Amino acid sequence: MKETTIKEYLLQRGISYRESGQELIARCFFSKCDLNSLENEGHLYFNIDTGQYQCKKCDAKGNLITLKKHFGEIATNEPKDSSKRNIRTVTPTMVEKLHESLPVEIIEYLHTRGISDEIIKSHKIGYAHQYGTYWIAIPIKNIDGNYSFFKLRQDPKYGNKKITWPSGSADMNIEAQIYDWESLLMASGRVLIAEGEMDAMLMKSKGIPCITGTHGAGTIKDIWMEHFKPEIEYFICYDNDEAGKTGALKMAEKLFKNGCKNIFIIHLPEEVGEKGDLEDYVVRLGLPIDDMFSKYAKPYPEKIDVSEFKEISMEEVCKILDATIKKDDENKSITFLSMLTTYTDESQMNIFFNAPSSTGKSHIPLSVADFFPKEDKIILAQCSPTAFFHEQGVMDKEKKEIIVDLSRKILIFTDMPNTGLLERLRSILAHDAKESRSKITDKDQKGGNRTKTVVLIGYPSVYFCSAGLKVDEQESTRFIMLSPSTEHDKIIQGIKQSINKESDRERFMGVLDADAQRALLKRRILGIKQEEIIDVKIENPELVEKLFLQDSKGVKPRQQRDIKKIISLIKSFSLLNVWFRKREGGYIWAIEKDITNAFALWNKISYGQDYGLAPYIFQIYTKIILPLWNEPSNSFGNLSSESDKKHSVTRKEILNKHFKIYGRPLSLIYLRQNILPQLEQVGLIIQERSTGDSREMVVIPVETEIEPTERYSVDEGGVNSPIAEMGNPAPTDPKSLFS
Question: How much is the pTM?
Fold first, then answer.
């Protein structure tokens, strides 16, 4: 029904006025202000747009509602402004009084929003004067059916604010609830999950059971999941904006993890607009409600037709990845395979990309992650422990704990995270326990410290990217250490790709999107995720033991973790071809080919891992320091007592050799503060003052048996080493890595 304007109302009441600009001027009828005023003189001013009024003499103020109350058209049993009272308990009496105060205009407004009289009455929608303005009051019950608080929506005449009331009381139960619990608990067919109370009431008015979280799309608590019956059909319809789409995916994921199998996400059509909602669809556009549950509803997760897949090799995967990652086959293979282990319960892998700036450290994991579902990825740069836990966690107020569920997530740090965060993540990086607790400290309102408990659940696959080469041994043992290739051909191809991309980004992305093989690989990953594999078992553990312990003379404690990394690689090779492996329930079996492929890939990078070094640093040792050490010393000075070799290598020689090999300078400070300390920490070198000049520090290699040409080569994107050198038999066919 059309809202009455102030002009129309004054005419209905027979009140004379004159118009001046945006105001109507009448004689005051609240007091005797205009008793002696001239005929056309008045002191009561009305705003034409808002209907608000003020008498310039007696200062009477109000709006159309208070005007109607003055003339007895609306009952005056409205509750007084409660902001001056300390409301601590919401009672049925209070709810009833506010409901009785609901003006006709607001009822008509709710009708325009598609909400029926039946729902207005049964849900006790009320009207309150609070905080100096007027509100539509929606009473919220807790799971026990007791009133907990009100959700207030400002009377549209005065604004569009939304608040919770009462608030601020320490012992008040004002935490988020489901609106309404009864619809969920009594559900027997399908349930629609909307984004707000108004949408929920709208759909209830259409006879559809509908619930929502009272504090936004993302506030459905994990502890409530037990009340969502697995046999019910759940349709999720949030707003059409980016936040709504993300929230719908998170809600669907929660339901799926809770065992619900009949989950659908409703994607509203383009007609509703970029930020459109249920009201736009049902009321404004009047589109068929049945289409929401058929035409626009897509099952979650999207059902993948696995019949389109064939057994695939890593060589084929690398060719697909080559569209965005040039060369670097070993690096992108391990990154891709490690991300596949995300979809197991406990076999996730951690990778540390460590190299100087501008070498593409973050490019590799980010490009590979493009193939994986958005809802499975958490991508961050710098982040403090407190910020990380608050952003990724959900507060359980009953237990006073922050719950951070990282299970089956891909966690990428594009820059080295805060040291404190790294320390707090050690337990999940090492897979010590599937649930771990730690403490963080927040500032309270008075400036003091307040301790909170953080509960970390599950294992993510984690990727750190850092140009800072100093890595604590506790971290290095938990990661596979990688460095991007810097070979000449890769850089040239990377430059060409950047030119193509930046010259016409839309065309470049269009070519990628149109790539059928990329699309097929993305669907393959979704299919692997939907298989819900718990773990991969190994048919031939004896072969794993033989390959790893063939030469056990030089084993180190850290290799107890290295074998776990190799086993995770074995499992990821099996996951890649999950439909072609023997399966028992949530378990599949790795075959011998998976084992040999994993060892072939591991041996491409294994020697640097033995020392916990990034390949870039290890290459400085094998390609620069050792060759300098083995050069004849007669061109530099001192003679060795054993042969014509040096006693030491100077830093200046290292810098010169680096420039000759790489064609780019190396900073002395970077060498002194980042590279040499790492080599010294793992026992590959010692540093001491030169006997010829005590002002100069020199480098003396300790492990001199390493052949530089037989180990990891960043410039060549891998190694040329005979695998037998590592105590493991080399594959007879060099291509067996990708078989």
Answer: 0.65
